[in-house]
């Protein structure tokens, strides 16, 4: 049991540095020390014997009474923090700037009789500094927040600019592609007019010249002379016809009007029929020709297109192979076989080509015509047409050649398999 | 040593006390506070090292209420720094977030500790009819070594240890409540529990 405190000794509280006051169980203020006079500005004589909540109304609240009342029964000390009960000592219920940390302890003044000792620590200065720090912190946080917003905005603008750049780059690529296509079209057109202007005008001049001579003076020529002129007219007409045929097909392919219509074809037979077609030219140069393509090789492709390819390649081979030379058709086993393609090779013992000529062989804007070993003329269109047709038929075409060692032209076409 | 029935009675006392403190804390904060006591046990002197090791090596805030009279010892609310900060923030909201302001923390934790300790000690004192005198509460912070008072180690005292969980809406904090009894006091406590049992429960 704690010792009884002599009320006569309450005056000793005046000598302590902190604010203290004592109330009885009816909340009547029975002691008010000197430091608390300074702290609150309320003098002892003005407050003694008055009820605590008359001066500080918040103490009348049930919340506080509930916690303070056990003290009058010897209960443990009660703590009210300055931060959570800021307005406890407010005199008119208004918001105050005073922060008092309060501890209320039991004072045993008699048998089952207790007073409550209120000890007040003034924390106003500390809290004013804390509030200042909090306000600075909030300001700094707001600034950081603002900077983050700006940063986010900058990043999003940066992304937008990058996207815009990407779009421009894509457009540039597209323009570049269109430019290239346009250049190809211009080259096509130029080629077309070159052929018209040169390769068609010449034979027609010859045709006109000879037919005029025959028409005007046929009686003055001998039968041999007349036959010679008619043979020449026939050869020229045939060549012009071939040229027109190629030109027409090539023009069609350029405008996308040629659509492959695949069917099952025996490639060996196609080659045979073209050999028959060009037999007179082959015999004229005494060229030895072999068709070694496997009889069981079937392709699934467009007959007209594959005929054009074979005819042109054979015609070229004849053109560049000297008299008594050799032309061989063969089937090749290579990696294309795994891709479902049949590869055919036509090799000759002709003049061959250098690297520069090889690299531009299938380019319309770079193509040129070369005179054959028997002064045969060409259009420079045949190989371009072959290359385009093979690609349209989902095949591939390539060439191996060396000057003086002949050429090997390869083309592969989709194999037909049951 | 306490028998299982006596431990049950102590559990009951602590739960009632903590329940009362939750009611009071709810009047101080806008959010709803729920306090649970999942475990109550007696720690003998021989188990002191296990008891200390239960606390991880970090900083703790400890609110102590020394008491004497019919029983002598210390009641303590022990909170790790992290959980103490969570608890303080629940009471003052954003204004204190992440600020290491000791004055503010000390003031508020002192009051929270006071509410919980007073409610438990008040209940213990009333239910078991034990008269206790109290000294003003003390706030300390430091390593886990501050948890057991030197005086208790010298006296080979027993500890009544209660894990306490605070649930305040979306956040959860854990604390520990412990009463350190001097040996003689612990024997008196057993007698008081026995008397309570004989008077009300037998």
What does this entry look like structurally?
The complex is a heterodimer of chains A (418) and B (202). With 418 residues, chain A is an alpha+beta fold. Among the domains of chain A are: 7-122, Beta-Lactamase (2-Layer Sandwich); 259-418, Histidine kinase-like ATPase, C-terminal domain (Heat Shock Protein 90, 2-Layer Sandwich). In chain A, 48% of the residues lie in helices and 18% in strands. Chain A has 11 helices and 12 strands. Chain A has helices at 34-40, 44-47, 52-55, 62-68, 124-217, 223-254, 267-277, 279-284, 303-320, 355-359, 382-392; strands at residues 19-23, 29-32, 78-80, 100-110, 113-122, 263-266, 288-291, 298-301, 326-332, 341-348, 396-401, 407-414. Chain A has a 5-stranded antiparallel sheet. In chain A, β11 (396-401) and β12 form a beta hairpin. The longest helix of chain A has 94 residues, at 124-217. Chain A is rod-shaped. Chain A starts with 18 loop residues before the first strand and ends with a strand. The model of chain A has no long low-confidence stretch (mean pLDDT 86). Chain B is of the alpha+beta class and 202 residues long. Chain B has a single domain (4-201), classed as 3-Layer(aba) Sandwich (Chemotaxis protein chec), CATH 3.40.1550.10. In chain B, β6 and β7 (171-181) form a beta hairpin. In chain B, α1 (4-28) packs across α4 (102-127). The longest helix of chain B is centred in the middle third of the chain and has 26 residues, at 102-127. The radius of gyration of chain B is 17 Å and the shape is globular. The mean pLDDT of chain B is 85. The A-B interface holds A 1-2, 63, 66-67, 70, 74-84, 101, 103, 105-106, 119, 123, 126-127, 130, 133-134, 137 and B 24, 27-28, 65, 67, 69, 91-92, 95-96, 99, 101, 103-104, 107-108, 110-111, 113-115, 117-118, 121-122, 125, 131-137.
């Amino acid at each position: 049991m704690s010792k009884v405190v002599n009320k006569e000794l309450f005056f000793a509280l005046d000598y302590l540095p902190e604010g203290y006051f004592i109330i009885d169980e009816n909340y009547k203020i029975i002691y008010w020390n000197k430091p608390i006079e300074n702290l609150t500005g309320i003098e002892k004589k003005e407050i003694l014997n008055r009820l605590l909540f008359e001066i500080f109304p918040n103490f009348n609240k049930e919340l506080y009474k509930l916690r303070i009342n056990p003290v009058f029964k010897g209960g443990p000390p009660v703590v009210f923090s300055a931060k959570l009960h800021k307005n406890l000592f407010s005199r008119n219920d208004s918001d105050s700037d005073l922060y008092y940390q309060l501890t209320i302890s039991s004072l045993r003044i008699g048998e089952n009789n207790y007073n409550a000792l209120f000890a007040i620590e003034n924390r106003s200065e500390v809290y004013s500094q804390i509030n200042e720090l909090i306000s600075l912190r909030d300001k700094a946080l707001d600034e950081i927040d603002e900077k983050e917003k700006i940063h986010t905005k900058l990043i999003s603008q940066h992304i937008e600019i990058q996207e815009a750049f990407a779009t421009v780059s894509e457009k540039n690529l597209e323009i570049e592609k269109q430019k290239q296509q346009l250049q190809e079209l211009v080259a096509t057109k130029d080629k077309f007019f070159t052929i018209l202007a040169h390769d068609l005008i010449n034979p027609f001049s010859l045709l006109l010249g000879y037919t005029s001579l025959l028409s005007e003076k046929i009686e003055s020529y001998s039968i041999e002379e007349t036959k010679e002129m008619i043979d020449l007219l026939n050869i020229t007409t045939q060549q012009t016809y071939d040229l027109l045929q190629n030109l027409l097909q090539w023009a069609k392919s350029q405008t996308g009007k040629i659509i492959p219509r695949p069917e099952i074809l025996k490639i060996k037979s196609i080659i045979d029929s073209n050999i028959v077609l060009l037999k007179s030219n082959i015999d004229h140069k005494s060229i030895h020709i072999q068709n070694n393509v496997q009889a069981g090789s079937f392709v699934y492709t467009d007959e007209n297109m594959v005929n054009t390819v074979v005819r042109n390649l054979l015609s070229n081979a004849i053109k560049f192979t000297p008299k008594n030379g050799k032309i061989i058709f063969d089937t090749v086993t290579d990696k294309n076989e795994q891709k479902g393609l049949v590869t055919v090779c036509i090799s000759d013992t002709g003049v061959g080509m250098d690297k520069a000529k090889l690299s531009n062989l299938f380019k319309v804007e770079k193509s040129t015509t070369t005179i054959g070993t028997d002064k045969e003329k060409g259009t420079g269109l045949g190989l371009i047409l072959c290359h385009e047709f093979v690609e349209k038929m989902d095949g591939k075409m390539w060439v191996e050649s060396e000057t003086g060692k002949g050429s090997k032209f390869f083309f592969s076409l989709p194999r037909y398999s049951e | 040593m306490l028998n299982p029935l006596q431990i049950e009675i102590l559990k009951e006392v602590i739960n009632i006390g903590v329940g009362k403190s939750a009611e009071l804390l709810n009047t101080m904060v806008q959010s709803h506070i729920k306090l649970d006591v999942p475990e109550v046990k007696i720690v003998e002197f021989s188990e002191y090292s296990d008891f200390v090791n239960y606390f991880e090596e970090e900083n703790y805030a400890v609110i102590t209420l020394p008491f004497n009279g019919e029983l002598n010892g210390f009641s303590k609310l022990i909170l790790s720094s992290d959980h103490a900060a969570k608890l303080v923030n629940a009471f003052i909201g954003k204004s204190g977030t992440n600020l290491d302001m000791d004055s503010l923390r000390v003031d508020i934790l002192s009051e929270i500790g006071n509410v919980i300790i007073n409610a438990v000690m008040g209940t213990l004192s009333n239910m078991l009819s034990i008269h206790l005198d109290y000294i003003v509460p003390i706030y300390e912070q430091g390593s886990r070594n501050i948890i057991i008072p030197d005086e208790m180690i010298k006296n080979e005292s027993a500890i009544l240890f209660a894990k306490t969980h605070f649930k305040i809406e979306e956040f959860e904090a854990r604390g520990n409540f412990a009463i350190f009894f001097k040996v003689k006091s612990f024997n008196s406590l057993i007698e008081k529990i026995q008397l309570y049992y004989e008077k009300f429960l037998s």
